[in-house]
Specification:
Strand content: 5-15%
Helix content: 40-55%
Structural class: alpha/beta
Strand order of the largest sheet: 2-1-3-11
Shape: globular
Largest sheet: 4 strands, mixed
């Protein structure tokens, strides 16, 4: 759990481009600027003249009392807004959230709320969640408005078919990883005298075969596992890129044509390659039965050559190092391959929403907008100055870490300071936030990404919205298709179903609505593309 929390928070701290940073100056002023009705300031702090108390529903990692966190206490003092918290454990939050929507006993705001596009459309059109664009455009969210103005695709990606914005995203335009990537075991590369990583699927096959046959862990046993996985969920998206496919389900090509991956010819190439590896015992035969923990145990036993994880040492053990290189996506027979499904820079789900019960949306929008500027993003990501960090140079935003009280783990201690821990929260992430705080390993990772993934990367598909009717139809079709596709993927890979039956499989996919899925998402993509 400790490392999972580290991964989730590190993911949220991927850097943002300098251009976005320029758009995200602090809204913190020196007091008395223009004031709206009800005494809500459009600039400066406190936001309200009299203490405003609101209710907030959120997920909770369960490591500290939110009322006693330095970040929430500092924000209350700064803003003049106090929250009463209605919290649920991360694992049960979705169920609790659905019950709250069904009962109508609403909080004033949802925070870190994981609001899917269907939730936003449904509860927005019902009037449960209120439109936010009015408050953004009328000056209550200057940081967010600058981001929207400079990056109109972000605004488009959170505008529903009725023209409203009902939820706010997490924003990080320089994020690279959509899913955790693939890695090579550096010890195996060294043992086999590999000085240049595979560049083609055939070279990758040859390397995996050498791992199987040449005892790179040096124990005299043929116990090496060239490629391991858990149900292919961890490697699927990365490997599909070898055949020119950006996503596991839906993606748009350079000509704005939408594709449903499981019925693409490139998907057949992916299955054929994995079947070849399976037949020659180069793909772990426990792939469809093992747990993530069992996979990691093989890594720590120095048996695994190629694997997926957030960081290589999560699987192999040890400390962060540059010894285990990021896998370079390899080229197949498909023209234009490889490609990489890059992170779109915004969350696919809404992280913050204001409900119809909220007595002061203007003040609430000012409160959340603080997290879309440098000062607020710093506060919620790293806590107040002089607890975990201090400025080396405040003008250039360069910081340094301070010793963690009691010698505790820094990331776990951070989780006692801020609510922005272990789940996706609103706000923005910026390279400015981590100036001076990055380790050598972080710098190496940035270099690996820039060299290997960014040049071939593209966001697979924007955050589009279906109408209620379209969403109902797509959900019903996808439910059955997902089950069938997963079953057939396992059968094709293991040889239980021969790939000579591909045409029969495609006919069944189309019968179950594969083409209709393309039609629905093409329509939504065209609306997004034209800003309608």
């Amino acid at each position: 759990m400790k490392r999972l929390r580290k991964a989730s928070s590190i993911l949220l701290c991927l850097t943002l481009s300098a251009t976005l940073l320029a758009a995200c100056g602090s809204s913190k002023g020196d007091g008395g600027s223009s004031t709206s009705a009800e005494g809500v300031k459009k600039e400066g702090f406190p936001i309200v003249e009299k203490l405003l108390t609101l209710t907030m529903m959120s997920q909770d990692a369960g490591v500290a009392d939110w009322n006693k966190m330095p970040v929430t206490q500092e924000m209350e003092k700064l803003s003049g807004i106090k929250f009463n918290y209605q919290l649920s454990p991360i694992d049960s939050f979705a169920t609790k959230k659905n019950l709250v929507f069904a009962s109508g006993d609403l909080p004033d705001v949802f925070y870190g709320a994981d609001l899917k596009s269907g939730d936003q459309v449904t509860y927005g059109t019902q009037g449960v969640l209120i439109p936010l664009e009015k408050y953004i455009d009328e000056g209550y969210a200057p940081n967010l408005k600058k981001i929207f103005d400079e990056h109109p695709d972000i605004r488009k990606s959170f505008t529903t078919p009725d023209g409203h914005i009902y939820a706010l995203p997490n924003i990080d335009l320089s994020a690279v990883w959509y899913r955790s990537p693939m890695w090579y075991n550096g010890k195996f590369l060294k043992a086999l005298n590999i000085t240049e990583l595979p560049k083609t699927t055939e070279e990758l096959y040859t390397y995996l075969k050498r791992v199987k046959e040449e005892d790179p862990n040096g124990n005299g046993k043929k116990d090496e596992i060239p490629l391991t996985s858990v149900k292919l969920d961890d490697l699927r998206m990365y490997f599909l890129g070898f055949w020119g496919i950006y996503s596991e389900v839906i993606y748009a090509d350079k000509d704005s044509k939408v594709h449903y991956t499981p019925q693409e010819e490139g998907y057949k190439g992916y299955l054929t390659f994995l079947n070849r590896l399976w037949k020659e015992d180069l793909l772990d035969h426990e792939t469809f039965s093992q747990t993530p923990e069992q996979k990691k145990a093989k890594g720590k036993n120095n048996q695994v050559a190629v694997f997926n994880d957030y960081f290589p040492y999560f699987t192999l053990g040890g400390e962060p190092s540059e010894d285990n290189p990021l896998m370079t996506p390899v080229k197949s027979e498909v023209e234009g391959s490889p490609v990489y499904g890059k992170h779109p820079g915004i969350s696919a789900q809404g992280t913050f929403a204001i409900t119809s019960k909220n007595p002061s949306p203007e003040a609430t929008m000012r409160w959340i907008d603080y997290q879309y500027g440098y000062d607020g993003a710093t506060l919620f990501a790293q806590g107040p100055e002089n607890l975990l960090w201090k400025y080396k140079n405040k003008e250039t935003h360069e910081k340094e870490w301070l010793p963690v009280p009691g010698g505790k783990d820094r990331e776990e201690f951070r989780g006692t300071m801020t609510p922005n821990y272990a789940f996706l929260t609103p706000g923005m992430n910026s390279s400015e936030l981590t100036k001076g705080l990055k380790s050598d390993f972080d710098g190496w990772l940035d270099k690996e990404n820039e060299e290997k993934l960014v040049p071939i990367g593209k966001s697979p598909f924007p955050n589009v919205y279906l109408t209620n009717e379209e969403q109902s139809e797509a959900s019903a079709l996808m439910s059955d298709l997902d089950t069938y596709v997963k079953q057939m993927e396992a059968k094709f890979v293991t040889g239980q179903e021969p790939l000579t039956n591909w045409d029969k499989y495609i006919a069944q996919i189309k019968k179950m609505g594969g083409d209709r899925i393309v039609e629905l998402y093409q329509g939504a993509y065209d609306r997004w593309n034209t800003g309608k």
